[in-house]
Amino acid sequence: MKNLSKHLYWFLLPIILLVGLDEWIKAFALAHFPDESALTNPNFLNFAIHKNWGLAFDIPFRREFILLISLVIGYFLVDMLIKNVKSHPKIAFSSAVILIGAIGNVFDRIYYGFTVDYLIFFGRSALNLSDLLIVLGVILLLISSRRSTQEQTHKAN
């Protein structure tokens, strides 16, 4: 990943395509999957609709507040991406993955009024592909930030 900053878009293209696929799956799920309340005997993984009207984990907030918070977080992610694209491309990539996943969920909130979750784990935890990308991006960001800090400490010694 040495030249990641020069070819960042090639690494991000599959992520963008995954969010496009996620939006297609959400539309398909809304038309064909049952509501999660119809699950009488949930398995490890079920395909059903969960309408998330709140933040992560269904924490209830008004839609306008959620969109405002999303814009603020998005601003900081874009800023982190721009500041690190040349010096720490892995941090920039991680920020972009989080941002792209979040855009998928923000689109849902604007278009549907809620986030569409369709992967129901253990009859309780509801996720979609954009959520999984956000989690992946956060994990990558933590790993990249830790390595960057270790490299800076090593260079200083």
TrEMBL record:
The keyword Cell membrane applies. The active site is at D117, D131. Signal peptide: none annotated. GO terms for molecular function: aspartic-type endopeptidase activity. It catalyses: Release of signal peptides from bacterial membrane prolipoproteins. Hydrolyzes -Xaa-Yaa-Zaa-|-(S,diacylglyceryl)Cys-, in which Xaa is hydrophobic (preferably Leu), and Yaa (Ala or Ser) and Zaa (Gly or Ala) have small, neutral side chains. Its EC number is 3.4.23.36. It comes from the Bacteria. GO terms for biological process: proteolysis. One of its GO terms (cellular component) is plasma membrane. Pfam families: Peptidase_A8. It is a multi-pass membrane protein. Pathway: Protein modification; lipoprotein biosynthesis (signal peptide cleavage). It is an enzyme of class 3 (hydrolase). InterPro entries: Peptidase_A8. It is found in: Cell membrane. The chain crosses the membrane at residues 65-82, 91-112, 118-143. This protein specifically catalyzes the removal of signal peptides from prolipoproteins. NCBIfam families: lspA (TIGR00077). Belongs to the peptidase A8 family. This is Lipoprotein signal peptidase. It comes from Candidatus Uhrbacteria bacterium RIFOXYB2_FULL_45_11. The gene is lspA.
